[in-house]
Amino acid sequence: MTEWPAPTVPARRSHGVAVVARRGGKVVVSLLSVAILALTWYGWHYIGDPNTGLTTTNVFADTEAHAKPLDGAIDILLVGQDSRTDAQGNPLPREVLDMLHAGVSDGELNTDTMILVHIPQNGKHAIAISFPRDSWVELAGGYGKHKLNSAFVYAYTDTYKTLQRQGMTDLKQADAEAKVAGRKNLIATIEKFIGKPGMIDRYAEVNLASFYEITKSIGGVEVCLNGPVKEVKSGVDLPGGRQTIEGVQALAFVRQRYGLPNYDLDRIARQQAFLSGLARKVISSDVLTSPAKIADLVSAVKKSVVVSQGWDLTEFAEQMRGLTGGNIEFHTIPTLGNAVIGGADVLRVDQAAVQAEVTRLTSDGDAPAQPTSTQLPGAKAVTVELFDGSGSASLAGQTHTLLQNKGFTLAADQKLSTRNTTVVRYNPADTAALDLVKQALGTTVQAEPDRDVTAGHVRVLLGKDFRSSAAGAGGAPTSSSAPKAPPSTAASSAPTTPPITAGDVPCVN
336 in helix, strand or coil? Predict the structure, then answer.
C-alpha cells in the first residue's frame, strides 16, 4: 500500500497567529487551468460525454441545488493546489517533479492560486477575480486570522487527525475526506471574506500533475514579458517580448515569486496573462479544428482536475457557446500593501473595499463592468526609464506599476547604488513629457534637463527620499503585531489597473 505522509500541522502561537508560509525553493504554485472552462465551451462534444472520467468532490451540502443556480448566474471557485499527487491522490513520479523544478514537498497543502469566476445567465462574458494567497483574513471554521491560503490546510489537518483518532487506518481514504473538508473551509472563507454566503456554486481544482501535458497538448501559449527573466528557484529562463511557452517554462513562468518587483502581485498578473492566453488558444481554430489536440487536452485535464459533484458540463458547454476571448476579464482584489504579522509576511486588505469591488464586478449587466480609467492622455507616447537607487525592496516595483497604470511605456528597470535624492531627467526640448511624469508621481521631485535623454523619454532616478502619494510612502514591509489601520474604503475600493482580457497579449513583469 502507498505510504501517505502525515499532514503538516500548522504551528499555533499563544496570540492566535500561525505561520504556514512556505519559504525558499519549496514554494510550488500549480496554475489552475482555464481549460476546464474553455474545453467545455467548444471542444468536448467532439469526443463524447465530458462528465465521464473526471474526478469529482462533494463540497456542497446540496448538489441538486448547486446543479442549477437559482439566479441563473454561475460562480466558480478555481483553485491551484500545491500538491505532489494527481487528481486521484496518486503520488507523482520523482522524475516528473524533477523536470518541473518542483522541489521537495514538506507535506503542506496550501492553495496558492484562488480565482473566483462569475458568469452571468446569458453566458456572454466572464469576470475572473484573483485573491492573493497572502491576504490577511478571518478564516472560516473558527481558526482565527491567517493567510487566505491556509484556510484549506487548517481544516484538512484537523479532519485528517480526527479520522485517525477515530480508528481509520486507510490513509488514502483519510486523505480524500480531509481534502473535502479543506475545500469546504476554503469556499466558506472566501464567501465570508467577500460578504456573499452561498454565492459559490461550482468548484474546480488542479495541481501540477498535468500542467506540463496541458500546455504541450495545445502547442504552447503566447505571453509577453517586459524584459528577460532568469531565476533559479522556479527554473524560469525566458527572453523579453512576445513568445510562445509550454511545458517546463510555462510552469516556471506562472510559479516564479522571487526576483519580481511586486512579488506575489506580479505573479498573479502573470497567471492572469497566461490564463487569458490559454483561453484564447483553446477557443482558437488551431485547436478546435484538431481532434487530436482536443483529445490530448481532455486527457491531460482529466488527469489532474477535480470538479464539484452535480456540475453538468455538457449543459455548461451549451451555455458558454457565445463567449469570446475579448469578453473574459481578469481582475485582482484591492490590497493595502505588505506587513509582517506574527513573523509572517502578509498582504493587508480592507474587507469593506474588497466586498464593494466584488459586488461591482459581479453586478450583471449587458457588458462586463469597467473600472474607471486612470491613464493620462498622451502618456503612452512617453517612455519612462526607471533607475532604482531607493534601497527599498519594493518601491521600484510599485512605482513601475503606478507609471504603467497611468499609461506610460516602461523600459526595463535598472538598479543604481543607493542615493539620497530622487531626480527626474528629461530632454530640454520635451517639457511636456516631464510634466506628465510629475503629474503621475503625485509629488514634488527635482527635475534636471539632460540632452543625453532621448526625446520622448524621461529618466526617473529613485532615491531614499522618494515619497509618492500615489505609490505609497516607501512601500517597504512594516513589522507589527497587528495590521496597520487601513485607509478609507473610498480610497482603496477601485483598482487602477486596466483588466487583462483573453482578447490580447498583455506584457507583464
Answer: coil
